[in-house]
Recover the amino acids of this structure.
């Protein structure tokens, strides 16, 4: 299977995690994203386990990611009016960038600001909640062979050593036969292995735990330092804003051949021209089958709402919001 073909498998793993997390320890409220991490390491699938009440409080700050500069302002904004330099910790970079972040935060209604005595003051509108419980990293490799196992072992070993995530997993497609023991031995013992079977589509029973993971959180070894906790929160914020259905941002839903189709309980992209699920690389402007939506498709409705491509994006956004509602309610079946 080519790296591009793994894109489709990744979407199915994301939907499975959304439906049935945690695979070995029972239901846990969580949101799912993909292709996130740090400069040193990017994870295929990211699961953010959350506290439902605190997650509801986070949603009060809006549906978009709160980036690192805004987090510095929002997390430390005081309850009462204060000059921003007195209220906020020194950021480690020039204050003028903090001032810009204060203006942006106020523009997004995350805080309140005013000018008094030629100084910019701020106060919080609501406390920023401690909504992140745990972070789980999943590497997706549907066709686990010897060479893939060697490469993944190094990546998972990095996850174990850095402990930026609380758990690390490898998801691989079952073949009806046992995974070669030598391949399992190549993986760090702390990483879990999830054997998936999406032949009948995605549902909550489409995977089995072939190996249980260890808890990588530093319990007993001292708490994570403030810098690491901030990095984890930045990852969680990006996961919140991006989700895993943002694949339309790197594909061409404005093509007349682009569709969304069900694969069990997942909704994934489909190309009517190629009669298959396209990869992210295939579904691009350079595709020889690309055909823009006719102008009349894009001007239906008043005010202008766009054609089917815009409608597909709204469909994906609605499904994301439905899952957020389910997490906030801490129950139900997605």
């Amino acid at each position: 299977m080519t790296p591009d073909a793994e894109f489709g498998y990744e979407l199915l793993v994301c939907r499975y995690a959304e439906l049935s997390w945690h695979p070995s320890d029972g239901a846990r409220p969580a949101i799912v994203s993909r292709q996130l991490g740090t400069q040193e390491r990017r994870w295929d699938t990211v699961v953010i386990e959350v506290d439902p009440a605190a997650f509801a409080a986070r949603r009060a700050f809006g549906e978009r990611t709160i980036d690192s500069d805004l987090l510095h302002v929002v997390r430390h904004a005081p309850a009462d009016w204060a000059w921003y330099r007195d209220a906020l910790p020194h950021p480690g970079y020039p204050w003028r960038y903090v001032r810009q972040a204060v203006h942006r935060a106020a523009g997004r209604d995350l805080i309140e600001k005013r000018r008094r005595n030629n100084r910019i003051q701020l106060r919080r509108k609501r406390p920023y909640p401690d909504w992140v419980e745990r972070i789980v990293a999943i590497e997706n490799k549907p066709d686990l062979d010897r060479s893939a196992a060697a490469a993944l072992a190094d990546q998972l070993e990095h996850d174990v050593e850095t402990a930026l995530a609380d758990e690390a997993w490898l998801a691989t497609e079952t073949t009806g036969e046992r995974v070669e023991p030598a391949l399992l031995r190549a993986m760090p013992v702390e990483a879990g292995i999830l054997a998936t079977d999406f032949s009948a589509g995605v549902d909550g029973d489409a995977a089995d735990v072939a190996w249980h993971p260890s808890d990588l959180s530093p319990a007993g070894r001292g708490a994570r330092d403030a810098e690491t906790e901030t990095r984890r929160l930045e990852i969680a914020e990006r996961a919140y804003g991006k989700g895993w259905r943002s694949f339309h941002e790197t594909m061409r839903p404005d093509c007349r051949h682009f569709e969304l189709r069900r694969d069990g309980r997942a909704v994934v992209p489909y190309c009517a021209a190629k009669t298959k699920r396209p990869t992210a690389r295939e579904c691009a402007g350079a595709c020889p089958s690309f055909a823009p939506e006719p102008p009349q498709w894009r001007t239906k409705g008043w005010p202008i709402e766009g054609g089917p491509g815009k409608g597909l994006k709204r469909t994906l956004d609605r499904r994301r919001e439905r899952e957020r509602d389910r997490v906030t309610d801490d129950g139900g079946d997605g």
